[in-house]
């Protein structure tokens, strides 16, 4: 059946082929990356087959471009709109953090823009410890996780959350120790963790 007889050509707004050629990659390279046939890559490029979300993410990471740009949803090749909308940080804030990270030699000017942005956002969100206060907050978060780990191991009743935070709330009456676990050990572990959090909370970094 010809197009004139009613068969519509598939809409193709994705930039897989465009970026692949621009970066001097072959369909064979992508097929190896995704563990699919070269024919499957051809179908993706012609929009005759829709990649899964995980496939889009792999391709975006491989090409080092935003997924929205790769899929043709956005014309923003750097992805600033995506980063601002998804993180709440402005372009200026992220660029300022990138500049700080480059000056402190935590990242290199030779890194790609996407790599710089990812690292800067991780730093701003304190998922990557690049400041003294960030390290302190990270340690506190890990102590909260450690306390949750101990509670899950020792208690019959699981702790509830305080609002939308990661803080566990356990009422004294709910602290029922499993019969095969030692109550004295539980109390010692929890006291050590809580005391550590208090002591770390007293640290006020100068930088």
Give a description of the structure.
The protein has helices spanning 16-22, 27-34, 38-45, 53-63, 67-71, 80-87, 91-103, 113-124, 132-154, 183-201, and strands spanning 160-161, 168-169. The termini are far apart. With 207 residues, it is an all-alpha fold. A two-stranded antiparallel sheet has the order 1-2. It is 55% helix and 2% strand.
Descriptors:
single chain; 207 residues; two-stranded antiparallel sheet; 10 helices; flat
Summarize the structure.
By secondary structure, the protein is mostly helical. The chain is 55% helix and 2% strand. A hairpin with a 6-residue loop joins β1 and β2.
Unreliable runs: 1-9
Please tell me the overall pLDDT: 85
What oligomeric assembly is this protein in? single chain
Principal-axes geometry comes out as flat
Give the strand content: under 5%
Which class best fits the helix and strand makeup?
mainly alpha
Residues in helices, as a percent range: 55-70%
The largest β sheet comes out as: 2 strands, antiparallel
Strand line-up of the largest beta sheet: 1-2
- Helices and strands, in order, run as HHHHHHHHHEEH
Distance between the termini: 71 Å
Please give the count of helices.
Answer: 10
Q: Find the count of extended strands (DSSP E, 2+ residues).
A: 2
Radius of gyration: 25 Å
